[in-house]
């Protein structure tokens, strides 16, 4: 009895399993999107407001119109294009600190609350 012929070699088994795995597209998500497509779709999302920013808006009785939110979104896109990570956005008599990488408004300040007019830990400013 020839034992060699009844078993596959390690190379044959490895080749069989690896060739099946190589047929799967590695650079696609489960939705069939490429990494670049997912990244670009994240960049076009609207800004989110952190719990802290929501609390500041409520306690300072600040309500934003759809037009103002659109202006913030445009400002965030401009800041992202310039490579800004944390941005001060000035709009009307309001100021916002926005984490551009996470697309999140971190805090909101009105002209009354910004007595010192000092903003720290920002990479850039955008006037919208």
Report the helical percentage: 25-40%
Helix count, DSSP H or I runs of 4 or more residues: 5
Please give the CATH architecture of the largest domain: 2-Layer Sandwich
Structural class: alpha/beta
Task: Set out the fold topology.
Layout lengths: L2 H4 L3 H13 L12 H9 L4 E2 L1 H9 L6 H16 L4 E6 L2 E6 L4 E7 L13 E4 L1
Structural key phrases:
single chain, 128 residues, alpha/beta, 5-stranded mixed beta sheet, 5 strands
Structural features, described:
The protein is α/β, with parallel strands linked by helices and 128 residues long. It has two domains: 9-39, no CATH class; 46-127, YaeB-like fold. Helix content is 40%, strand content 20%. A five-stranded mixed sheet has the order 1-4-3-2-5. Strand 3 (94-99) and strand 4 (104-110) form a beta hairpin. 16% of the residues are buried. The mean pLDDT is 82.
Concise synopsis of the structure shown:
40% of the residues lie in helices and 20% in strands. With 128 residues, the chain is of the alpha/beta class. Strands 1-4-3-2-5 form a five-stranded mixed beta sheet.
